[in-house]
Fold:
Amino acid sequence: MSQEIFINVGVAEVRVAVVTEHELQALSSTRILGGEAATTLVGDIVLGRVVRVVPAVQAAFVEIGHERAGFLGAREARVLQLHAPGEPSIGELVHEGEKVLVQIVKDPIGDKGARLTAAVTTPGRYCVLTPYQVGAALSRRIEDEAERRRLSAMAEEILAGSGCGCILRTAAIGITAAELRDDLDRLRLEWEATVAAAGVSDAPATLHRDLGPIERALRDMVHDDTRKILIDEPRALERARDYCRRAMPHVENRLSLFCGPGGLFDDLESDIDGLMQPRVRLACGGWITFEATEALTAVDVNSGSFSRSSALEDTGLTVNLEAATEIGRQVRLRGVGGLIVIDFIHMREPEHVAAVLEALSQGLSRDSTPFNIGPLTSFGLIEVTRKRVREPLVDHWSEPCPQCGGLGHVRRVEAAAMEAIRRIERAARAAPGKPLELHAAPEVVRWLDEEGAIAALARSLRLEIIAEASFPRERFEVGTSGHG
Structure:
């Protein structure tokens, strides 16, 4: 199936959506404040300083220039003494006060700091450079054996004598030796610059940041089946074209400027809003429900109004197959990680269980996040583990409700402000040149002012913002002004 990528560039955020046959498959959102991208820390290479070594948990806490120290486990620090016999303890690998070059592999989540590794890597379009690991490895998603052998031999020849290695990504399928060499040369230059910076920097210092949200989307989301890439802001389109010319010239002709009618995400907004709701309706009439706890995420499958007159087993199979595919999609979109326990409708036939497990695996495998699916338990449950790489969407967009002691969630101030900005931008498109008014809660207005969004909007719009003391955080009204 061919896919489309939509990149929406607003005053306060960049949103990227992957759409297949008009259905949202992947979503990312990067807040932009004061010209800087307030994005994920994953991929940043940092010269850190060890502030505490904890032998009891075989880990060290490393100051990395953020609110909380990062967590470096002994296994992730092992590269610091590759030739040491056995498995050195954390106290043998690092000591307090020492400077150490690390990479952030997991964002801070809740009250936990970022997860770190000393096995630093540098990602490119076709491969990931591994400076501390010699030789070529391949993504498991490259399945054709002949292509695996071809790519492996090609990479080994290019890497010979370099003292480093690489991991070939799925985007490498079908590439030439010249294309791989160019990618590796760029990554080696980046790595050499990072090492040089480490030699003259004081800790903590961020030495290398991953690409911006637009370039990162092009690098990581574009595949052979990507039919077109729509961007709704001319300067962002030029940045995308510039990146393509440097790193992936064959993709440049797929880039286009979206000029309407309406907004680029108009057909997706209801689907995006639904990601905050626990219940997801299925086309067959059933539904699935997500409930998150500290320990796990529980997913319940219900047949709802759907039934097959032939047999209860057939009803369960039909609903379960649709639910399995949708669970994979929702887990990706919601950023669910850790332990996931799924209560499918009861199935007696082993072949039906196998079919549902295969559908679930296919649904979860549509991104690169590692996962494992366990067998059906004696209680009729399926256990899934999925690597937790970012904060779940519900935590990113909401916070515990102060009125119910944390039993529910309300939208964060910044999330409400982002939605207000999107409404303003839609109203401006619908009534170009007309003065607009935003009525919103005082805390939303205050956030817009303090983060520079009001000033940014005022550069291109005639806008009056009115704080309404009676408005709750999630209420705002946008309309044309009676003035002018």
Summary: Residues 321 and 356 are 5 Å apart (CA to CA).
